[in-house]
């Protein structure tokens, strides 16, 4: 059972609560070549959270359900609607101003829900090397297509197994593909 909670944000422009503790970082934006972007607002590390803002167009999502084995993830939707997939047996959809916290180890599938892009901010606690993982993911999308993209993604996801994991058969497929990424 999850201890995840949902609450309505009272200030849609407010920053996630951990931002004040971060060292100064010039935000870095990565483009996926498909209309999506991620802006790293705070890199985080093994003690501090990683904070990012993502714009996800309709029809774009991770390749499979994912989870962060050692990181809690807090989402705050700025505009549009964000689906997190099935959480506790129910489709979880967040709208502008809504927040949701996922405990470490909870599978989810973030995707745009609707015909307009979704923009959201998220905090991964602790940050670990998630900023580098996202940089690699966006570079793979931007620089490769087809099987080449999958091979590059497999390499990124295998390298960053502390930050992200996928369920059974897909994880096995990624590990096999990662051999070609080396």
For the record, give the distance between the C-alpha atoms at the N and C termini, rounded to a whole number.
38 Å
Radius of gyration from CA coordinates: 16 Å
- Order of strands across the biggest sheet? 1-8-5-10-4-3-2
What structural class should be given to the helix and strand makeup? alpha+beta
Provide the CATH topology of the domain at 6-128.
Answer: Jelly Rolls
Shape: globular
Low-confidence stretches: 1-22
Task: Compute the number of strand runs.
Answer: 10
Largest sheet: 7 strands, antiparallel
Known CATH architecture of the domain at 6-128:
Sandwich
In N-to-C order, the SSE pattern is: EEEEEEEEEEHHH
Q: Any overview of this molecule?
A:
It is a single chain. The chain has about 180 residues and is an alpha+beta fold. It has a domain at about 5-130: Jelly Rolls (Sandwich), CATH 2.60.120. Helices cover about 25% and strands about 30% of the residues. It has helices at about 130-145, 145-160, 170-180, and strands at about 5-10, 30, 35-40, 50-55, 70-80, 80-85, 90-95, 100, 110, 120-125. Strands 1-8-5-10-4-3-2 form a seven-stranded antiparallel beta sheet, covered by helices on one side. A three-stranded antiparallel beta sheet has the order 7-6-9, with no helix packed on it. The longest helix is centred in the C-terminal third of the chain and has 14 residues, at about 130-145. It is globular and about 40 Å long. It starts with 5 loop residues before the first strand and ends with a helix.
């Amino acid at each position: 059972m999850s201890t995840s909670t949902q609450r309505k944000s009272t200030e849609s422009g407010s920053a996630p609560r951990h931002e004040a503790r971060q060292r100064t970082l010039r935000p870095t934006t990565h483009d996926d070549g498909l209309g999506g972007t991620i802006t790293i607002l705070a890199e985080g590390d093994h003690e501090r959270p990683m904070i990012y803002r993502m714009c996800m167009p309709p029809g774009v999502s991770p390749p499979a359900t994912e989870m962060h084995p050692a990181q809690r993830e807090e989402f705050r939707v700025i505009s549009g609607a964000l689906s997190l997939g099935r959480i506790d047996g129910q489709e979880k959809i967040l709208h502008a101003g809504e927040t949701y916290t996922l405990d470490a180890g909870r599978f989810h599938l973030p995707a745009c829900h609707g015909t307009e892009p979704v923009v959201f901010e998220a905090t991964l606690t602790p940050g670990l090397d998630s900023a580098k993982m996202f940089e690699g993911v966006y570079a793979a999308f931007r620089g490769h297509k087809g099987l080449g993209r999958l091979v590059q993604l497999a390499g990124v996801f295998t390298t960053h197994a502390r930050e992200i994991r996928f369920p059974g058969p897909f994880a096995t497929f990624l590990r096999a593909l990662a051999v070609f990424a080396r």
